Amino acid sequence: MYLLIFTQFGFFTLFYLTQAIPDVIFGGLRSGIMRYSIPVYLGCHLTMAYLLAQKTIISPRMKMRKHLWRLLLLGLIFLQIISCVIILPKKTWWNKAYSSDNIPMANIIKQSRNPLIICLECGKDSGWGNVLSISYLLEPQTKFQLFPSTNIKQIPDTFTDVFFLNASEKLQDILKKEHDWNIALVFKHSQSLWKLKLSTGNK
User: Fold this and answer.
1) What are 162's strand-pairing partners?
2) CA 104, CA 134: separation in Å to the nearest integer?
3) Labelling 27: which of 9, 61, 69, 97 has CA 20 to 30 A away?
4) Using an 8 Å Cβ cutoff, are 38 and 23 in contact?
């Protein structure tokens, strides 16, 4: 049994390193995304379950220590219940990481009657998946314009507000030089949301 647990834990740790090492060398977020590391957490849970079973049930000696281990087990169960009570009413949690910003950004966008969301750098960071995620939080009629570059010729006059998702400093400079557009920061955390300052000639 020891061999099985240590083999599983070692395999899951090696699995995690295959994600963490490319992140360190090439950059990226793979090792920070919870769903990719489920095998690692499963290995940790199995190891802890085996340890607690040995100390609280299987081991026939040291009854006093067995009672202490049982108290530890009850404490862990109690902490798990508290954790579930805290998490239950939340709309998002720390393991959502980058996408946790989608909710406050969507709330800002919803204040506009007819908004347009422009994302010129969808291929970077969270990519297209994050744009798809935030679209589910908005009204079905909300319009998106997704460009692989800054090649924008014009913005239709039908929109009341124009937002830019995750505009980098380089992109801001390009928008200013090529289109004479000024954008103001309205939200910033892991992601950022910018709003076009409307003036004559912006559209």
Assistant:
1) 116
2) 10
3) 9
4) no
User: Do residues 193 and 163 lie in contact, with contact meaning Cβ atoms separated by under 8 Å?
Assistant: yes
pTM reported for the whole predicted model: 0.62
How many other C-beta atoms are found inside a 10 Å radius of the C-beta of residue 123?
Answer: 11
28-69 pLDDT tens trace = 667 767 777 777 777 778 888 888 888 887 766 667 778 888
CB within 8 A of 91, min separation 6: which ones? 103
Residue pointed to by tokens 């692989």: 148
> At a CB cut-off of 8 Å and minimum separation 6, what does 72 contact?
52
User: Quick one: tokens of 15?
Assistant: 């699995």
Q: How far is CA 2 from CA 6, 7, 37, in A?
A: 6, 8, 23
**136: how many CB neighbours lie within 10 A of its CB?**
9
